[in-house]
Specification:
The structure holds two protein chains of two kinds. By secondary structure, chain A is an alpha+beta fold. Chain A is built from four helices and six strands. In chain A, strands 2-1-6-5-4-3 form a six-stranded mixed beta sheet. In chain A, strand 5 and strand 6 form a beta hairpin. Chain B is of the alpha+beta class. Helix content of chain B is 25%, strand content 35%. Chain B is elongated, with a radius of gyration of 16 Å. The N and C termini of chain B lie far apart (37 Å). The chains are: A alpha+beta, B alpha+beta. Chains A and B meet through strand 1, strand 3, strand 4, strand 5 and strand 6 of A and strand 3, strand 4, strand 5 and helix 4 of B.
Chain lengths: 156, 156
Amino acid sequence: MTTTQTRTAESAAGVVTEFFDRYRAHDINGMADLCSINASLSYVPVEVWGKQRVLRGDGKVGTIGKPLWTGLVTAFPDLTNTVHTVAANDDGDVVAEVDIEGTQQLAWGLIRPAGQHYCEPHLFVFHVGPDLLIDSMTGYWNDAGISQQLGHEEVD
Amino acid sequence: MTSSQTETAPGSSAPASPATTVQAFLDAFARRDAAGALALVSPEATVTVHPLGIGGRGPGVLGVVLGDMIRAFPDLLVTTGRIITTGDVVTVLIKVEGTQAADYAGAINQEKHLDIDQAWRFTATGGVITGVSAYWCQQQLYRRLAVKRFDAIAIA
């Protein structure tokens, strides 16, 4: 990615498209390379209710995103995605509708591996900075859909 | 509902921008005015509410979703966070809050408080909404409503 390229809606969309290309290739470091060093990440559905605190999917790409992505491709070795729409503007906002799917081979959170397959629609909101690096991303999806497809019927 | 109202820009007969049209929809929804919101939706609009597994065309489909929410949570509070305009696509990040007062999505009323972050992706042209896709996590929703299992949603 050249840093001399001007940010436009098209170039910002290109960064996000490349991000999902690398996700499809399980290139976790490559995904992170498309993000700024301090890029923020919010995976809204991710929340784990413990006895004394709730762990949420909010933080940084380096500390929350990479471990989550690595865990996903480990638990779902055939993890892949299909990008349906990418809409962008010249301010670097990019909204992508993406199906993510995979077959569970290892435990994922509280879900035991039963060889089940899931496919769930996601909506991601990115911001791509003037340096053409992603500086924030927010993801929305229905975890109940994933749990049920994997055979896990407990809410927690 | 057989026809949709066309939103116009203030002081002008020109159709409102996509963002203005969606803002008017959100304003009506925030007033719990489902009819006012649905008046902005084209009869041919594509509607997909992923967490509820609802899809179809026109305001009637969306009306079921809005109506159920307003009926079950009479103190419904809809707070708009970000509005992201990317051409004729307008994505809004909202928080929906309320206290359950009737059955909702299969969950019996236990008078629990709901707070859930949602993303709604609209397409709008000519002052009319032509597409809606809604994303949120139904697992979070059921957790808030004290549901324990997906296969026994109605059991307290």
